[in-house]
Amino acid sequence: MSGKLIRAVAAGATLRAFAAVTTDVVEEARRRHDCYPVAAAALGRTLTGALLLGATLKENENLTLRIAGDGPLGGLIADTDGAGNVRGYVRNPQIHLPSKNGKLDVGGAVGQGYIYVTRDAGLKEPYTGSAPLVSGEIAADITHYLSASEQTPATVALGVLVNPDCSVQAAGGFFVQVMPGVEEAVIEHLEANLKKLPPVSALVNAGGTAEDMLAGVFNGLTWQVLAEQKPRYYCRCSKERLARVFATLERQELQEMIDEGRAEVRCHFCNEVYLFSKEELAEIMAQATE
Fold first, then answer.
1. What is the largest CA-CA distance in the chain?
2. Domain range spanning residue 224?
3. Structure confidence by residue, pLDDT tens digits, 87-122
4. What whole-number distance in Å separates Cα of residue 287 and Cα of residue 285?
5. What is the pTM of this model?
6. Side-chain half-sphere CA neighbours of 127 within 13 A
């Protein structure tokens, strides 16, 4: 499995950046949810965006990125933690739209609506911020959210290249944040560099790494990598977790499942199906009532 997420600083730590190659992560999500191309691109951008936003989390902290648009995709969710694990889903994965200007019409598939970012540091209540979607293309929406809701001047770039057979050829992205005290000349230099960069999907498809992305972003500036992670598609669901959830149900609900002879549960995030036999359900009810 290939893929990397790196954290770096530049220009005397007045610029902070994160970059990731997520091809394998996005392909795993595409395969699990049987996504058509436009859904694969939208979900891949959302997963990568969540990983970049969550790159500073501690291992026991979580971040959820939700794109709630009124387009045919029906909304997207990605959930990540400080260890580089990510999972997510798109409500309607088998949507097809005609290309727009030679590219997958992610914006049209997402539609208008809101972006929500929830940060859970394990304290009393998670914090959720929101902002209107500006394009539905995900990267511009995250950039706008950071400015409007978190007062963070930043630039986010995301890209997913999907093959004709729906498999993911390349995926990745970067997130550059301007810190307090940065010189105007540094900002101008950064903006000039950003204008020269190729699309992220093209760079990754040509064999570019996360370091290559930031080498282009910080061309002419002094920069260094501080840390790196290996992102992976990972879901926390399990049959044991579901059994504990069943144990909290009303006795009548459990009895109805027993009478039906079995229960089938599908996880939204990983599409895994868990089957509970009549005997397993009866055991859960017996233990719950002890």
1. 72
2. 4-233
3. 999 999 999 899 998 899 999 999 999 999 999 987
4. 5
5. 0.93
6. 7
